[in-house]
Amino acid sequence: MFTYILNRLGMMLVTLWAIVTLTFFLMHAVPGGPFVSERMLAPEIAAALNAKYGLNLPIWEQYLNYLGRILTFDLGPSFKYPGVSINSMIAAGLPVTLQTGLLAVICVVALGVPLGVIAALNRNRWPDTTVMFIATLGVAIPSYVIATVSIYVFALRLGWVPTFGLDDWRGYFLPVFALSGFWISFVSRLTRSSLLETLEQDYMVTARAKGLRKGQILFKHGLRNSLLPVVTVLGPVVANLITGSFVIEQIFALPGIGRQFVLSITNRDYTAIMGITIFYAAILMVMILIVDLLYVWLDPRIKLTKAAA
C-alpha cells in the first residue's frame, strides 16, 4: 500500500509538471499580452509593467521563475488586480465553491444511486420507465438551460428562492439543482445498468438458490460490486463540482473559483488562468487516487498493482 501510494504520488508530480509546462507555454503563445486593452498604454507604462512582472525576461527564464514559485506553492500575482495573489483569489472563492459543490455531490450520491437501484429492481415496469425518462431528460438538457428555466420558474414566477447570490440558505437551491441535475441523471442510469448486469451473474443466482434474504443479496453481494463503475465516475465528478462550474457560477453570480476563471479569461489575467487550471488538475488527480484506493475496499479481489495498471 505505502509503495503504491508513493509511486502514484510520483506519477502525479510528473503529470502536474507537464500540465504546468503546457499551460505556461500556451498562455505565452496567445497573441497580445496581459496588459493589452482597448485603451492603449504609453510605451513607458507598458515597459514598466512588463519589468515589474518579469515579462521582459527571456521565455525560458520566465518559465524557470514560474516553476520555482510553483514548487513553493506560490501561483504568482494577479495581472489584473494589483497586490492580489492567485493564492488569495482561490482562497476567497474556494469556500463558496466548496459549499455548493459538496451539496451537489451529496445530491448526486443520495439521489442518483437510489434512483438507479429502484429502476433496476423494477425493470420494464412504471418505476423504471419514470426514472429513465427523467434521467434521459437530465442528461440531454444542458446545465445552463436547467439554470435558466429554474430561475424563471422558481425565482421569477413563484418567488420561492432568490435569483442570484447566497444571502440566505434558499440561495443554494437553484445552483445546487443546476449543478447536480446532469450528474444525478447520469449516475442513476449507470447504477441501473451496472446493477442489472450484476444481478445476472452466476454468484447472484447461487446466492438466491441458497435462500439468502433479498436485502442481503442486494446490498452485500449485488450493490457493492455494481458500485465500481459508479465510483469510477464519482472521482472526476467530485473534482469537477468542488472546483466550481464556470457557467453556473456566472449565471447565479456566485463569487466562486469558476466565476473567477471566467473573469480571468475576459481580463487576460494569465496567471489566474494558469493557477486555477493547475489547482483543478491537482484536485482531479487526488480524487482519482482516492477512487483507486476505494476499489480495494469495494472489491478485495482488486490488487493495487492491477489498479495502477
In short:
Helix content is 75%, strand content 0%. It has 13 helices and no strands. It comes from Devosia riboflavina.
Query: Averaging pLDDT over every residue, what do you get?
Result: 83
CATH topology-level name of one domain: MetI-like fold
Largest sheet: none
Strand content: under 5%
Secondary-structure class: mainly alpha
CATH architecture identity of one domain: Orthogonal Bundle
Number of strands: 0
State Rg: 24 Å
Question: Considering the protein shown, what is the CATH homologous superfamily of one domain?
Answer: MetI-like
GO cellular component, one term: plasma membrane
Main location: membrane
GO biological process, one term: transmembrane transport
Keywords: Cell membrane, Membrane, Transmembrane, Transmembrane helix, Transport
Topology diagram in text:
Elements: H1 2-29, H2 43-52, H3 59-71, H4 86-121, H5 126-140, H6 143-157, H7 173-199, H8 202-209, H9 214-242, H10 246-251, H11 257-266, H12 270-298, H13 304-308
Main location: membrane
Subcellular location: Cell membrane
Pfam family, one: BPD_transp_1
Throw out a few tags for this protein.
mainly alpha; Peptide ABC transporter permease; 13 helices; MetI-like fold; 309 residues; single chain
Structure write-up:
The protein is mainly alpha-helical and 309 residues long. It has a domain at 95-268: MetI-like fold, CATH 1.10.3720.10. 75% of the residues lie in helices and 0% in strands. It has helices spanning 2-29, 43-52, 59-71, 86-121, 126-140, 143-157, 173-199, 202-209, 214-242, 246-251, 257-266, 270-298, 304-308. Helix 4 packs across helix 7 (173-199). The longest helix has 36 residues, at 86-121. The radius of gyration is 24 Å and the shape is flat. The relative contact order is 0.14. The mean pLDDT is 83.
